[in-house]
Amino acid sequence: MSPADILQALSGLSALVVGDVCLDRWCRYDPALSDPSRETGIPRIAVISRETTPGAAGTVASNLKALGVGRVSILGVRGDDGNGYELMQALARRDIDASAVLQAAELPTFTYTKLINDTNSVEDRPRVDFVYTGDIPPAVESAVVQRLNQLAPEFDVIIVSDQAETESGGLVTAKVREALTAIAATDPAKIIWVDSRRRGALYRKVLVKLNEQEAEESCLAYFGQLDYQALRQRIGHSTLIVTQGPKGAVIVGEGSTQTIQTRPVEHPVDICGAGDSFNAGASVALALTRDPAKAVEFGNLVASITIMKPGTGTASPEEVLAASAALQK
């Protein structure tokens, strides 16, 4: 299938994004208005405009919807707070089904506030994060597993966004991983695509995508050397994908390794969210083509567009077609 064929077929696909969802707030401030605070004397940061977007798993979902996937839903957790309300509004604006985003009063909504200088559009102030570093409550974990088992049969593709930096993980706990393994065993044809920042080697029977650094850390931790085949065998899936930024990606299959090169993009604007764009494009392309090489090529195509946009941008079908045509020249 060509990129055009893939795009045409996406409206018939359904995708469920499972994992850590957050609110990204892009706040532009005017340094000329940094008057000292009367209370502390510390100059204020005077925000003059802001934009909110879904982040992490929400970025994956936004990319899926922008590409034209027919049904996009997200399973995650938010707090009972204003940031949670804004997150739900941001998802609704993108026509992403957020009915499975569970509300938990015990947790804050993960929120990342970027402060951008309005005079030069540079993010030059420390980010302000609303975080939670503990384990999710058992009742919330049980609810997530229950909803995952209920929803899984309805979707062609399940994409897991396991982005938490904590040791035990965020939404994707050991029990959630076990549920994913069981789903894979029940329906081997279903695409379950996992992007995990720290726990890729802990998944079983699903396709795991890691970047070079993540793959190296996993290999050294478990085998003492760089061995992608051993890592794939440990996970127990026919395919492991290791992305290499501008160099492309390595597809590790059963007894084979294939490198898919990509055309380097000169002067990328913002690589933030490139992995999420790749995951969105590659996972649905794999569901349609059943060809990991075609999937990686399509994922690279999508990511090549979004890295030319500020923030966590998305790629439209028209942009993908134009980028594909440019590669043929």
TrEMBL record:
Q: Where is the Carbohydrate kinase PfkB domain?
A: 54-318
Molecular function terms, GO-annotated = heptose 7-phosphate kinase activity; heptose-1-phosphate adenylyltransferase activity
At the top level of its lineage, which domain of life is listed? Bacteria
Q: Does the keyword Secreted apply?
A: no
Indicate the transmembrane segments per the record. none
Keyword annotations for this protein, in alphabetical order, are:
Kinase, Transferase
UniProt-listed InterPro entries:
PfkB_dom (IPR011611), Ribokinase-like (IPR029056)
GO cellular component terms, alphabetically, are:
cytosol
One Pfam family assigned to this protein is: PfkB
Matching entries from PANTHER family are given as: BIFUNCTIONAL PROTEIN HLDE
This chain's protein is named Ribokinase
Question: From which organism does this entry originate?
Answer: Paludibaculum fermentans
